[in-house]
Every structure is written in C-alpha cells, then in structure tokens.
Amino acid sequence: METMNLIELCHLDEIAEGTSRGFDTSGRGRDTVFLVRQNGELFGYRNACPHYGTTPMAWRKDAYLSGDGSRIVCAAHGAQFDIATGECLQGACLGQSLTPVRLTITDDGRILLEQDAQ
Amino acid sequence: MKIIGPDALVFGVDDIAAASQYLIDYGLQAVDAGPHGGRFEALDGTAIIVTRQDDPSLPAPLPTNAPLRKTIYGVADQATLDAIAAELSKDREVRRLDDGSLESVDDMGFALGFQITVRRPLDLPSERVNAPGDHARPVNDVGVDEDRVIIPRSLSHVVYFVPDAAKAETFYVERLGFRCTDRFIGTGPFLQPAGTLDHHTLFMIETPPFMLGCEHFTFHMGGPSEVLLAGTRFVNKGYESFWGPGRHKFGSNWFWYFNSPFGCHVEYDADMDLHDEEWEAREAPISADASQAFLFQYREKWIPGGDPQ
Q: What is the H or E stretch that residue A116 is in?
C-alpha cells in the first residue's frame, strides 16, 4: 500500500499575499519546492524548470515572481509561467508546465506538503 | 575591422531596484544609478546598463521579448566605425546616434551598437601562483585575503540563443570580421573579433526560435580564486548557483554561473585562453564531458569532525 509523508512547510501567516517562498524539504541546502500566494489562493510547485527538468528557478532566495508579481519566472532564461496553472506562457519551455505539488492546509493554517514515502 | 569586444549590454527590466541590487552584489560599481536604472561598471569601464523595459530610447525588443535589448561593441578607432557603417549600410539601416555611436541589427534581430571603445587600459597583476620552478607571488605576499575587495575587471562575452547558428555566424564573420576559434558541432561557434586575442567574446547556441535571446553574459575576474571567492559571497547573499564552479575546455576559462533577474544566466570567469591567427579552430560534439574539464558544486564550509564546541 502506498503511504504518504506530510512535511510542514510553514504557516499561512508566513507567506504574504503576492509573494513566493522556497523550502528545502530534503535538507540538502537547496530549495526543492516553492509556494506562491495570489488572490488568497496558494499554489505549490517543484523548484525545477521544465526546460532542463531539474534546475532551480529563483534568482535569489524566495524570488520566483516577475517584478509586478503577475507570473512565475524562471531566472535561468526568463521563461514565464501562469501562477495558477504552472503553464509556460513565454520562453524556453513553451508548451510545458511546472510540476505541481500536493498541499494540505490544516484548520489552524499550517501548510503541509504531501510526499510519497520513499 | 578592429572590433575589440562588448563595451556594454543594455537590459530592459521590470524591477529596476532588484536588477540594480543584483549587479552591485555581483560586484559591479554603480554609476549614475537610481530609480531610472543606471550603468554598472567593471574596472575597465565596460558595463551592464539597466533601463525600464518600456524606456522609449531602447531599440525594439526581439519577438520573444527577451530582456537583452542591445549589445554595444567597442571598436578601436573612427576608421573602424566608418568601415562598419559602410559595410552594414549595404543591406540594412544604420543609425548614427547623438553620442557618435552606430546602431543597427544583426541577422537574427539582436540590436547592435558600435562605439569607439570606453575601455580603460588596466595595469593590474593577475592572480599570482607559487609553484616549484616558478614562484610568481612575491615573498611575504599572502595568497588568501577573504576580505579583499573583488570587482570584475572587464565584460568578457555574451552568449545568444539563435534559431540559425550558421546564418548568425556568417554575419559576424563575413560582415564584421570575427573569427571562429572553436566550435561545438550542431550547437554553434565561439567567435573572436579582430581587435582582441580573447578566445571568444561571442558564443551562439542553436535553439528553437521561441528561445531567441541571451543565454548568459560574464565578466573576467582577476583569477580563479576571485571566481571562487566572489561566487561564494554571491551564494551567501542568497543568490542561486546554476552551474559551477568549474573549468571549460574550449577557452579554458574558469566559470561559475548564477540565475538572474535579467532573463539569462550571469557568470564569473577567469583565465581564458588567448589566440591569434595562427590558431586552428577545434570542433567537438557538445556534451557534458566536452563542456568542462571538471565541475564542482558549492557547499557550506565544513571541517572534519565538526567545529569545536
């Protein structure tokens, strides 16, 4: 039977509207997933641009968005992604999408990442 | 045509403050910088110029809206400038701007500028190394100074994504006097203009048309230790390492690439090979092995057994 791990990322209060934040879920010194909060909704993706498949996207810690906060931007080659769907709208991986992660938000506002057990 | 190399790259960005801070943290010196953007210079006066993406003075963007808006080449003298104007005027518009520079476009659509170079001659020692048989660093001169100020020395090269590398190469070779120094087969050429001995100031990578734009730019540092120390400081400020540190084979330059808010990577490089017309270009299929002699990845400082408690 498939089992699932829940990893606590942060509290809803710790990611402001219109911002993004990365998390090092494997403890290897590099953020593996990131969250974006937009219009009250929360979106989470793997920190891996589909252009090369595994490469990190921020240009600085937690910096995953365009200047006006309207799109996710990969800081490798400037590919732009729709925040809600993860679809690449412009740039190196046109037609591909970010890989979403499964999130659970507890009644008291903790954001949990669902991960298949290794 | 004595084109020396890129004097400046002009980027149109959507967040001036973030882009400016990035370049300052990278090590460039802000000149006339503010909310409008500014000029961020290396020691020899070569620079990255940051403007708002809707600045009306910018040349038209590429169809991909890539943030790189213009590559400005420095040339040796007015005669070279006149020769470029005469050559490019044969089949395309060449504008003479108020500052005396030329503005035109290459065969892929990249906006080009040409000006009498702003490069100031540098009289600085490179990184000195001691080895049995050749002690290059003076006695009592210490090799490691973690606090030393590190400022990039000179804008080294720019790399383009192009949909037709052969056609793009022909323009630079036949119209502007560049030479191919080495080539990744099926990918693109390393190109050297006639006014420098640097292995390359331009490299091109063939990609689908929707990727047309800049892959990276880089500045020459004083030596490999400066690449590693500047890169370590950059990581510690929260910037995202992309590839490196390592050392390329073609060109032999040390490298360390970072993500950036310029829609391209930004590199530190050092100790690139010099070549003259005696050099015969090599060719290789591109691969991880062909791209580097060795590759390392940053990790936090560590000591065997851990720090004493």
A: strand A110-116
Partners of B258 on chain A (C-beta within 8 Å) are 59
Whether residue B133 lies inside any domain: the answer is no
- Let me know: does B211 contact B165? Beta carbons within 8 Å: no
Q: Do B259 and A67 touch (CB under 8 A)?
A: no
| DSSP type of residue A70 | S
Superfamily of domain A4-116 in CATH is Rieske [2Fe-2S] iron-sulphur domain (2.102.10.10)
- The whole-chain average pLDDT of chain B stands at 96
Within-domain flag for B129: no
Out of B14, B22, B213, closest to residue A67 by CB: B14
Report the chain A residue with the minimal C-alpha distance to residue B298: A29
pLDDT at A29 over 90: no
Option in B210, B261, B299 nearest A75 (CB): B261
The overall average pLDDT reported for chain A is 92
Whole-angstrom Cα distance, residue B199 to residue A93?
Answer: 31
**For residue A1, what pLDDT is reported?**
54
Q: Do B299 and A29 touch (CB under 8 A)?
A: yes
Domain region containing B65: 3-120+152-295
Residues of B in contact with A75 (CB under 8 A): 240, 259-261
Measured distance CA(B219)–CA(B154) in Å, rounded = 5
| Closest alpha carbon to B154 in B95, B218, B237, B110 | B218
| 8 Å CB contact between B199 and B253 | yes
Per-residue pLDDT tens over the stretch B109-118: 999 999 999 9
Domain boundaries, chain A: 4-116
Is the residue at B125 inside a domain?
no
Helix (H, G, I), strand (E, B) or coil at A12: helix
> In angstroms, what CA-CA distances link B103 with A80, B99, B113, B116, B214?
29, 11, 4, 13, 19
Q: What is the DSSP code (8-state) at residue A112?
A: E
Q: Which residues of B touch A63 (CB under 8 A)?
A: 18, 261
Judged by CB atoms closer than 8 Å, whether chains meet at B261 and A59 is answered as yes
* Reported ipTM exceeds the 0.85 cut: yes
- Name the band, by pLDDT with cuts 50, 70 and 90, for residue A2: low
Q: Assess contact for A47 and A31: CB atoms under 8 A.
A: yes
Of all residues in chain B, the one with the smallest CA distance to A29 is: B299
